[in-house]
Amino acid sequence: MSQSVRVRFAPSPTGYLHIGGARTALFNWLFARHHGGTFVLRIEDTDTARNTQAAVEVIFQGLRWLGLDWDEGPESADASGPSRGPHGPYFQSQRGEIYRRRLQELRDKGLAYDRDGAVYFRMSREPITIPDHIVGDVVRPLTDREEQDPDWVLWRSDGQPVFHFVNVVDDAEMGITHVIRGDDHLTNTAKHIALFRAFGVSPPAYAHLPLILNEDGSKMSKRDRGAVVTNYEEDGFAPDAVVNYLALLGWSPADGQEVMTPADVIARFDLDRVNRSAARFDIKKLTALHFEHVRRMDPEKFVQQAVISLSKAGIETSGFSPAYVRSALLTVQEKGKLFPELASWTDFYFISDESLVLDPEARAKVLVPSARPILERLSAAYATVPEFSATSLETTLKQLATELGVKAGALVQPCRLACTGRLVGPSLYHLMEILGRDRVVTRLRRCAALISE
RNA sequence: GGCGUGUUCGUCUAUUGGUUAGGACACGGCCCUCUCAAGGCUGAAAGACGGGUUCGAUUCCCGUACGCGCUACCA
Fold it and tell me: Beta partners for A118?
């Protein structure tokens, strides 16, 4: 079956990409990639009033950010624009002709008929078993209401086809082999199976994914910040980390590996290890995964991304040599911070000695009178140390501490504050080496001068 | 209401009749240490409840409770 797998993600452009939708897209994509199949993107934009081109753009952007590329589907957010693949158009709003033809087919077979201005489907009277790869076989008997009247509307009296109909027609036309979608469609799948049979097409395999809930177990709505994919981009998460985390919600690899690149996930992914129960979204675990990904990220890529987020925070690195920017930023890669937080960890590398602002709280705590001679001695020592390298700076500092009869920490803290304006940050000796002798000495002196006798 | 579906540490999960119920995140402690992290060691922490079946149930069956879904000329 490897060659024939065809799956699709069929979002409705509502103006944002829901995290649950992204997870559905991801599982489809993973399944296709794992089996060497085809991932189709289809836009269900039948609600013309609400579905704008901008709304389609948002979906594209979210999928692209996550790295979920589609093999068939639109190439433009414009519904009448170009597309890729032999089964277009991939916007439902452009497929009216196909739907009308399929409706006629049903009429010809005596399976569709008019009633009250709408067109009804002659539904199966028998219970339908839904074979689901995740949930197992689900028998869906008729409801009380359906006992009376099992038929349902295919085409509304306002001239619009209903979701169940277009969904099945498209899946049949596009040769979809596996329908992987949210749990909320499970019960309705009986209708879909009946329709496939009516068309004489054998239904695809089904896999209904459990839902993603908020941390407190409530349902995620667009009002929840975590429900909207673009927010993760804004908050500075690495997309690979989000993919990794999403994959782990409802699925786990047989080997128990937790930190995985998309390629790692593809290699391990299959439907047989997908859960049946809903999962709560845990931002802390996502963050931890983000740290792991950042730490393992290619340094050049890290620097590139860090420069962008620094620029967004108003810190310009373009005035410095690429080598300087690179070595400065790499001192914080191992910290695994979210990109927007990087600014407050590295700003001291890129601002002038004069505009360095000392954190008031730290200043009150560290710049006590006894710190003045320490800073003076240290600046003198650093002004003349032969080699301005991390190791020699460390040796020098520790020697001075011994000489003064104090612990190294008594020198480290004021020194760090003088150089960076804060008490936390990258490795002190490395940061000073990168800053260079002139700036370190200047900053130490300036700081010493701030302390009144 | 009816039908469907789910329920293992706080959270994500492993385990498909026999385990001291494992891991990860978060949390506590210790070590390391120039800060913050990281890392190492370590601690606390779970099978919703009640019945069966079985020599033996987290695992199979039934019921109860609770959550969720569907029950539309919404998608």
Answer: A115
Residue A56 to residue A139: CA distance in whole angstroms: 36
In the predicted model, what is the mean pLDDT of chain A? 92
Instruction: Locate A124 and state its tokens.
Output: 């199966």
Interface ipTM > 0.90:
yes
Enumerate residues 6+ apart whose C-beta is below 8 A from A351.
A315
User: Of residues 104 to 123 in chain A, which lie within 7 A of strand B by their beta carbon?
Assistant: 115-118
Q: Could you check: is the Cβ of residue A82 within 7 Å of any atom of nucleic acid strand B?
A: no
Nearest nucleic acid nucleotide to A138, CA to C1' distance:
B4
Do the beta carbons of residue A169 and residue A203 sit within 8 Å? no
Phi and psi torsions of A72, nearest 5°: -130, 145
Give the residue among A71, A70, A74 at the shortest CA–CA distance from A56.
A74
Q: How far apart are CA A418 and CA A420, in angstroms?
A: 6
d(C-alpha A282, C-alpha A66), whole Å: 18
Residue with tokens 């790295």: A67
The model's pTM is 0.93
A90 backbone dihedrals φ, ψ, rounded to 5°: -105, 10
Give residue A288's pLDDT.
95
Collapsing DSSP states into helix, strand and coil, what is residue A144? helix
In a 3-state reduction of DSSP, which class is residue A389? coil
Question: Which segments of chain A have a pLDDT < 70?
Answer: 1-3, 48-49, 453
| 200-229 on A, CB < 7 Å from strand B | 210-211, 213, 217-219
Is the C-beta of residue A142 closer than 7 Å to nucleic acid chain B? no
Q: Is the CB of A408 under 7 A from strand B?
A: yes
Q: CA–C1' span, A115 to B14, in Å?
A: 54
Q: Which nucleotide is nearest to A44 (CA to C1')?
A: B75
Q: What are phi and psi of A188, to 5 degrees?
A: -70, -10
Determine the straight-line distance between the first and last CA of chain A, rounded to whole angstroms. 81
Nucleotide nearest to A130 (CA to C1'): B4
Lookup: tokens for A186: 């499970």
DSSP string, A264-286: HHHHH--GGGB-SS-EE--HHHH
CA angle A442, A444, A450 (to 5 degrees): 105
Taking the CA of residue A195 and the C1' sugar atom of nucleotide B74, their distance in angstroms comes to: 19
- Taking only the tens place, the pLDDT of each residue in A68-120 is 999 999 999 999 999 999 998 999 999 999 999 999 999 999 999 999 999 99
Q: Which of A319, A365, A327 is nearest to A346 (CA)?
A: A327
